Amino acid sequence: MLDVSLNRHTSQALYRQIAEQIKTQIGNGRLPANTRLPTVRQLAQELGVTRLTIQNAYGELQADGWIEATVGRGTFVSPAVQPMSLQPTIGQFLTPDSALSDMLEINHIIGVRSMAMAHPDPTLYPTDEFYDYLNRLRPIAAQLFNYGPIQGDAELRVEVAKLVQEAGITAVPEQILITAGAMQAISLVAQALAQPGDLVLVEQPTFLGTLNIIKAQHLRSQAIPLHPDGPDLEALEQAMREQRPRFFYTIPNFHNPTGYCASPEKRAALLALARQYDCLIVEDNIYGNLAYDGPPPPPLKAQDGDGRVIYMSGFTKDIMPGLRIGYAIVPPHLRTRLLTLRRSTDMCSPELTQRALAHFLRDGGLKRHLRRVLPVYKERRDTLLTALQTFMPAPVTWSQPGGGFSSWLRLPRYFAPGELYRLALQNGFAFTPGEAYLMDALDAEHLRLCFGNQSTAGIRAGVQLLSELIRQRMQAGSRPSTWLPIV
Ligand SMILES: Cc1ncc(COP(=O)(O)O)c(C=O)c1O
Asked: Measured in angstroms, how far is the CA atom of residue 183 from the centroid of ligand 1?
């Protein structure tokens, strides 16, 4: 029943190898919920390892919720585990919306190693510290549980203004609009700037949440090809000149999904084009603090002499997504419109968490936190790149992210990443097919791997499995894609 083979010539500890293989077999349904596992003694004997090795493997599986042990009864696969084979809706369709829905669902399934979602590792969240800040607000909790200011908590706006000033942006608290995550900042700004039917420009590929917003608001969009050093300037200039778009949405620092970072020359050229064609730039800098090879490049907004950049960011990637706190720096002429839109959407964000975050930022909590997590994410990024180099078959190429959480892989042309996606899910591994980040599915030959939320061992095991699946498909001779186009 249990099929474990050990490699004694790798650096991966034996207990880890055992735990990983058991996880995979639980994840792909080979070991269903409530299956009895061999006793420590039986398995130690069978594999020729010490009992301590098996105890460590079982201990790790138990701590992560994969198995349960009851004294006198034995060790069983946890009844809470839901292998991918029991999730018929996941992977059925592929649009930006379904991809996001899949990612969120997969995240909660024990039994899948997910490199699908570009988010930080929950085990690294500063939860205890943050709780201390919440507890200190207990005496004024009743006040903070009221409706808060529409524009956001005043103390938080002061701290955000200081934060962006450190990045070279001149802004005062009156210009800061606190939002429910950066997504809401994108959505409100898009609503404020464009009417249904208006044209906006986006990089291709781009953040799928923005594609969802564009669709939901019935905007038209044009894709500007993205290169490793930033957007294609020729295509951008032509679109600005001929189409007069309402704005160009860009992620210059550690772009999602590619990990690319725009070069200083491209940044300067972008600002010059915006000036020449009087086009607004919506800059999303949500990954700006997650720089692994030196300080992050200054945002476009820091060089925006004439107010053509609307800047937004948030605390989802560098602190924790559940805060749901983002922000935009709002130009004076849009302030009233944005406040009206926020009022008519959800009024305001909870003030309790905003105030706790304000105090956390005021006391240097973000810098402390970044000092702790950046080396961990950097090691994971390095592990991903090394594992890709070691295991991926030759035709596959990938980006080399200097920050953020994602690398963008390019598969051989005849590959259908959607089919690979379903196959990987059946094997207990998740990534995101590239189609989800594209305006049109013609260029369907990419996939995104995220490294923020997996241990180095998990990243290596995931890449090894994915590489094996790709190799097998290459050997079998792939057919052209039968994948559904994005609608
Ligand atoms: C580029 C980009 N912008 C915005 C967001 C959404 O951020 P939030 O969770 O703060 O709404 C994400 C999340 O993946 C992202 O990658």
From this structure: 6
C-alpha distances in Å from residue 85, one per residue of 43, 317, 463: 27, 30, 21
Domains annotated for the chain, with CATH where assigned, are: 14-77 (1.10.10.10), 84-124+368-476 (3.90.1150.10), 127-364 (3.40.640.10)
Q: What's the pLDDT score for residue 9?
A: 78
**Ligand 1 centroid from CA 180, angstroms:** 11
Provide the whole-model pTM: 0.83
Tens-place pLDDT, residues 431-487: 998 888 887 665 668 999 999 999 999 999 999 999 999 998 888 764 444 333 322
Q: How many whole angstroms separate alpha carbon 433 and alpha carbon 484?
A: 12
Ligand 1 mean position to 182 CA, how many Å? 6
CA distance 451 to 120: 9
- Contacts for 179 with CB less than 8 Å, ≥ 6 apart: 152, 185, 188, 312, 314, 325, 326, 327, 328, 342, 349
Q: Which atom of ligand 1 is nearest to the CA of 324?
A: 10
Pocket test residue of 207, 213, 450 for ligand 1, highest count of atoms within 8 A of CB = 207
